[in-house]
Amino acid sequence: MEGRGIEGRAGCDAGPVTTDDLLRTVRASIAGRDPVDGREAASRARALAELDQLRSPFDRHADAVHVTGSGVVLGPEGVLLLRHRLLGIWVQPGGHLEPGETPWDAARRETAEETGLEVRLAGAGVPPPLLHLDVHGAAHGHTHLDLRYRLAVVGDPTPRPPSGESQEVAWYRSADALELADPGLRGLLVALEAAR
Hints:
CATH architecture: Alpha-Beta Complex
InterPro entries: Nudix_hydrolase (IPR020476), NUDIX_hydrolase-like_dom_sf (IPR015797), NUDIX_hydrolase_CS (IPR020084), NUDIX_hydrolase_dom (IPR000086)
Protein name: NUDIX domain-containing protein
Number of domains: 1
CATH topology: Nucleoside Triphosphate Pyrophosphohydrolase
Structural class: alpha+beta
Pfam family, one: NUDIX
Family: Belongs to the Nudix hydrolase family.
Keywords: Hydrolase
Oligomer: single chain
């Protein structure tokens, strides 16, 4: 693992951190996560094992297995879901990290890009709390170590996805979200509903 700098972005100005620092931070947040179900427990174990082996876990071009960041957007309207353009499944917005980006900043950026909403990280601190994680197969033979962070909308909650992004983006109440959502997200939705 090289020690090049990574800048904190998108309102998480903790200053530059090295890739090694980011790896330690991400690993600690995953290890400290209390899984909501068996799927998340298996994902936690797999993610920790992969992080111990991958040379560049934050670089999607370095290996088919890599870290991604997703935003779970919750509000009075419910939970925000979108239909994935390539896979046709209903998921939370998110995607690959840009060079020098943290997973939580990727979650915020990808959510804004995919939905047209202005969002902020809802958890306090740097890094913000890890809300959920899921390891799953993705398009192009990739495996995503998907780290999910809670986001809140700033301003108008009406999704306005730009052209080139999925146009199927909407708010869903708990029962409808549970019916639609990909299995990798259902455990979190059940846990969130139980905590209400």
